[in-house]
Amino acid sequence: MYKLxxxxxxxxxxxxxxxxxxxxxIERGVLKNGCQLPSISELSEQYYVARDTVExxxxxxxxxxxxxxxxxxxxxxxxxxxxxxxxLLLFNEMSSYKKLVYYAFIEALKGHATVDIxxxxxxxxxxxxxxxxxxxxxxxxxxxxxxxxxxxxxxxLEALNEIPAEELVLLDKDMPDLHTDCLRVFQDFExxxxxxxxxxxxxxxxxxxLVLILPSDGNYPQEIALGFRCYCIxxxxxxxIKETATxxxxxxxxxxxxxxxxxxxxxxxxxxxxxxxxxxDIGVVTFNETPLKDxxxxxxxxxxxxxxxxxxxxxxxxxxxxxVKNPFTTIRRRSL
Length: 336
What we know:
Layout: H1 14-28, H2 40-47, H3 51-63, E1 67-70, E2 74-77, E3 85-91, H4 96-109, E4 113-119, H5 124-134, E5 140-143, H6 153-161, E6 168-173, E7 183-187, H7 189-199, H8 201-204, E8 209-213, H9 223-234, E9 238-242, E10 254-258, H10 261-272, E11 282-287, H11 291-295, E12 299-303, H12 305-317, E13 323-325, E14 328-331
Parallel strand pairs: 3-4, 3-5, 5-6, 6-7, 7-13, 8-9, 8-10, 10-11, 11-12
Antiparallel strand pairs: 1-2, 12-14
Helix pairs in contact: 1-3, 2-3, 4-12, 5-6, 7-9
């Protein structure tokens, strides 16, 4: 017998829950054209709801063209053509890199889904409100789970656990504390940076001191700092972590790992005002490619943002639920 996604204690009205469950399963392909739904009496008894509630839900579904009734036989799914699944994207912000993921995701869906996007600005309260408001309205919830530093994990894990595992997709960041079998396409920020720096050992050999510029006001993953420390310790490098390049005086024999482009510009200005030569006396490697970094001939380490979007869309359409580490690459230039 057909199983509704139904929660009697939910704030969502029971009629709306029944309608949303049936529509979602039609769009997902669980309920196909001609499938018979449980009778009003069966559904009423199975979920302990009033017959009038089920009748009102079926009436709405019939009026909207999702089902049809046959006298003396019951209610059946009525196809409205190829069903498109509905996807809600939840991003912490819409940066240029997020746009690469978004457009690649949309392109890879090839018109098989409609996509809405909402931004929660690293705020767990806003995130939770969006989830609560939209539960049951979409077939999939694609989430980039980046929250402000200091946010209590319970504040967002509770909201994520409300989403059924088969409907949840995590993008960009894995969440080991979320014990659900959902699709995940992610960066391993600690391991990616460590491996990228190891791969640049031949160029970093001439720098005895390394500095990571990791802004405290940007909500960047703290795993970046862990990967940096691990590399420096294992390679006997003097190192420090700073929040900005503003008070940094470039020193010969120092290599810099920079996250934010404004810090890159600040540091390059200081280097050009000194006797030091970039790529000989001072080294610079930055996160994520931009036209400016190409122009300045700056070495870049980056995840493949477009690949992340394509992989998530393809696996979602194929109903795959697994963990996929996104590729991470290095672009070698003369800044090292």
